[in-house]
Design goal:
312 residues; mainly beta; 22 strands; globular
């Protein structure tokens, strides 16, 4: 089915629903939903939530102005889904990497295999006047890169809060291990006006300093490049933005780790689809299950993981 046929089919099925619009952004199809509480835009490629905004408020998510919306290229911003590994494959647990052929490890892309694949739109339902639910799915076939069949389903709940839930089901005959992350880019007034609280006293791996394990009892302020993996986070993480006069709460579901990332000045200049000064407008607080929290799924088993973002 080509692009025009796919859009036509989506219009026929969902185009008449209240608050639902099928959109074409250059080469990528998105579904936009709007209700009395909020609006959101979700791309079929990667099942990526790109925009979420409560009525009368500023966007919660940051999306790069430099995105080119080309097929096969993940968007910079929103909430990319990282699966079945997070980051560099070689930094993932041995129980994951030893499942894969050594000959392909060096060729595997960062953050897994599903960010640049087209997902199926399974349903769109207006649950009430303030809540819309969008469900997408991806059947993962056995391949050289990932030899384990699986079914992924992403449920996006758009309302007073934004909920993103990933259901992973092992549809094959062998157990497999995976890691995952919800690579959430949060929209800031200015990085200098923000601090992250809720991670005080938690151990973290400093990936910029040879993955040393560290701990701090102070809130996080960002005045340089930061790339930390906080492990076994017990409480919600909150981003306070004094200029926007709001707090964004990040509440995990079965995902105990939290990645804090901002590229700062030098790395921003090297990133694709990222303006040189964009580091001042975003920070990633990424709900994750990584490192020692690798997940094993036996045949027929399924698990739900996710994140809920709310504003106060």
């Amino acid at each position: 089915m080509n692009l025009a046929e796919k859009i036509q089919a989506l219009y026929a099925k969902y185009g008449s629903l209240k608050g639902v619009t099928i959109e074409l952004h250059k080469q990528l199809i998105a579904i936009s939903v709007k209700n009395e509480a909020a609006s959101a835009t979700i791309f079929l490629q990667g099942a990526q939530v790109a925009e979420y905004k409560r009525v009368g408020e500023r966007p919660l998510l940051w999306l790069s102005e430099a995105c080119d919306f080309k097929a096969g290229k993940s968007l910079r911003g929103g909430i990319p889904i990282c699966w079945p590994w997070f980051g560099d494959i070689t930094r993932n647990p041995t129980s994951l990497t030893q499942q894969l052929d050594e000959k392909v490890l060096a060729q595997l892309p960062a953050h897994g295999l599903v960010r640049e694949q087209d997902w199926e739109l399974d349903s769109v339902e207006r649950l009430d006047s303030e809540t819309t639910e969008v469900v997408l799915s991806l059947a993962v076939s056995s391949s050289e890169q990932w030899p384990f069949p699986a079914l992924l389903q992403l449920t996006v709940t758009v309302g007073v809060e934004l909920g993103v839930k990933l259901t992973v089901e092992n549809t094959g005959a062998e157990a497999f291990n995976f890691t995952t992350a919800f690579h959430s880019y949060l929209n800031l007034s200015s990085v200098s006006a923000c601090e992250v609280v809720g991670l005080e006293g938690c151990n973290y791996f400093d990936t910029l300093n040879e993955w040393q394990i560290r701990k701090s009892n102070l809130p996080i302020t960002i005045d340089r490049e930061i790339d930390r993996v906080y492990t076994n986070v017990a409480s919600p993480t909150v981003l306070n933005d004094s200029k926007f006069n709001r707090s964004i709460s990040v509440m995990p579901l079965n995902a105990p780790d939290l990645v804090v990332w901002n590229p700062w000045i030098n790395k921003a200049k090297r990133l694709s689809h990222f303006n040189d000064d964009a580091y001042t407008q975003m920070v990633c607080l990424e709900t994750a299950s990584v490192l020692d929290n690798v997940i094993e799924l036996t045949p027929g088993m399924r698990i739900d993981l996710g994140v809920k973002l709310s504003i106060a």
